[in-house]
Amino acid sequence: MSFELRQMPTRLPTLLLLFVVACGADPRSEDEAPDTTTEMPPATAAEAGDAAVVDAAPSFDAQPPVREASAPVIDCSNDGKSCDDGVYCNGVERCEPGTLASDARGCVRGDVVACATGETCSEQRRACSPCSDTALDDADGDGHEAASCGGDDCRDDEASTYPGAPELCNGRDDDCDGAIDGDTASLACMQAAPASSTSVCASGSCQITCSNPDADLIAGACVPHDDCAGVTACGPGSCVDGVRSYTCSCPTGYAGSTACADVDECAGTNDCDSSPAACVNDPGSYHCACPATHRGDGKGVHGCMRKATAISAGVGSTCALLSEGKVKCWGNNAFGKLGVSGQALGSAAGQMGDALPYVPLRAPAVSVAVGTDLSCAVLADGAAKCWGYNGYGTCGGDPAVDGLSMFDAPLPAGRTARALASGSGYGYAQLDDGSLGRWGMAFTSYALAPNARVKAFDRSPLYDAYHVCALLENGVISCWPGYTYYGDTFGYGTLGPNYDDALPPQSRPVIAFGGGHLALQIATGNQHSCALLDHTAIKCWGRNDFGQLGPGDTDHRGDEPGEMGD
Fold first, then answer.
1. Model confidence at 476: pLDDT above 70
2. What confidence category does residue 437 fall into, taking pLDDT thresholds of 50, 70 and 90?
3. For residue 42, is pLDDT > 70?
């Protein structure tokens, strides 16, 4: 039962008191007392209202009623009524008769409910609450009352969250349906996704996936991924962009998929002449290198050919001095002048190149000379070695034995050879002291001019070696016959106009060129000779029946006075 307590009019207790005093106490017991109820005059409307309230609930403002001492005490402890006035916010009323704070029935007011800051006591909720009892509790202004105040807004601090709101992908329940990132969240993600991509809502955010697996999401757009950016491993090749990877396109000579590495062509099969060429690996390529003693690019079967540093041709045969000091000869092999036994070499396939044998010299050669029927070489130790026809001891050994035995030429004691020339029956040597010697029928060492040394010499190429000319270090030339009994080689002037066979070689006159000019080079023909002079002119003398001297006629030169010099 609830009561509404109101202030009772103050005059009612007074009237009751006067009424009790006037009538006096009834000496009979309560059971025997007559009915003393007195009918009260009609009260005013206000007084009637107040009386009704008194019947409904006790008033804590009224004065306690005056009763006889012998009358039983009627209070909250035995009248069967509660002290609760039905109001929550003024606290819970207690029944404490006889206390100073109690009213006529012994009821004591309750303690007013104390609420926390920001809350008020609500009679509707019978509790402290931040909610209002009279106004709409809508803190975010979205038109929906907070769920904590009995409304349907699950987030009254967020205006975008309310029942029916669009569901976004944000990790929240935007439409208050109890589901976080509901079905429409992924739709919102797809609508906002960039071109060429898909998007789903997961973990509170839109997860965008580019349709192209080789694209990156950059600044909200799907951008093709460049796998070659910053790649340098391809080196001389080019980088080929792939799907989250790259490959190298390597040029010839390089190999690899993610890097172009130089291929060592020398480690496998190559076209270098295996003997004696060497394969040298280069970046992206290779080359074949011949040794210093050979020439060529080193490729193929004969990629490296031995270098010839000197060559000499005689009658029917030729010899070459190779860079390593070895000698090879080919052509007519009469008397063994090729240095090997057997027939001619070079006239059939397969006889040249590597198949051509070396002359079996005991030491490297430094020069070679081929004559009519013999060949000679100066060795590195200064010896003169000859092979071929030895009928006059031309090779330096027993005249009965041809030169396959490789005789040493009989040089003067203590002398070494610097250059050789061979004829038929004679061999010639330029010696280390500047003299010129010959051997064969007889050995003679010539000092051709006082204090003069031989710089170079040449002999005519025919079998008879008609004449020999020597270029001295002082630039003059002296000539003499190959066979002394030929004298002036049939009078063609080959030895010069003043040649006198009776004079010893060192006393015979030199060839005069006129103008004080000196010779730089000498060359002898069959019965004529030519010299290259220091002013680049060429002068020739001797036999001229075919115009071999070059003057535009067929007159011999040097066979008569006045034809030499200027």
1. yes
2. confident
3. no
Beta bridge partners of 358: 328
Rounded to two decimals, the pTM is: 0.50
* Spatial separation of the C-alpha atoms in residues 87 and 85, rounded to whole Å: 6
The bridge status of strand 120-122 relative to strand 246-249 is unpaired
Alpha carbon distance 14, 36 (integer Å): 18
Enter the tokens of residue 476.
Answer: 């003059």
Alpha-carbon distance 404 to 331, whole Å?
Answer: 16
CA atoms of 527 and 317, how far apart (whole Å): 21
Strand duo 205-210 + 215-218: pairing: unpaired
Q: Cα 329 vs. chain centroid, distance in angstroms?
A: 55
Token pair for 251: 């040029």
On whether the CB atoms of residues 25 and 68 are closer than 8 A, the answer is: yes
> What pLDDT shows up at residue 402?
59
How do residues 276-291 score in pLDDT, each as one tens digit? 888 999 999 999 998 8
| Residue % of the chain over a pLDDT of 90 | 17
Distance (Å, whole) CA 432 – CA 416: 6
For every residue of 4-64, DSSP letters joined together read ---PPPTHHHHHHHHHHHHH----S-TTT------PPPPPPHHHHHHHHHHHHS--SSSPP
422 touches 371 (CB < 8 A)? yes
Taking alpha carbons only, the member of 443, 442, 463, 323 closest to residue 388 is 463
The percent of residues above 70 in pLDDT, for the chain, comes to: 75
Amino acid identity of residue 134, one-letter, is T
Residue 187 banded pLDDT, cuts 50, 70, 90: confident
Helix (H) or strand (E) holding 187: helix 183-192
> Rounded to an integer, what distance in angstroms lies between the CA atom of residue 273 and that of residue 270?
9
Structure tokens at 248: 């190298």
CA 102 to chain centre: 102
Mapping DSSP to helix (H, G, I), strand (E, B) and coil, where does residue 190 land?
Answer: helix
Helix (H, G, I), strand (E, B) or coil at 434: coil
Q: How far is CA 337 from the centre of its chain?
A: 63
As a 3-state breakdown, the chain gives helix, strand, coil percent values, each rounded to 5, of 10, 25, 65
Alpha-carbon gap, residue 428 to 444, rounded angstroms: 10
Residue 52 has pLDDT above 70, yes or no: no
Task: Of 125, 128, 157, 130, give the one whose Cα is nearest residue 144.
Answer: 157
| CA–CA distance, 103 with 60 (Å, rounded to integer) | 5
**What does the DSSP 8-state code read for residue 191?**
H
DSSP-based three-state secondary structure for 288: strand
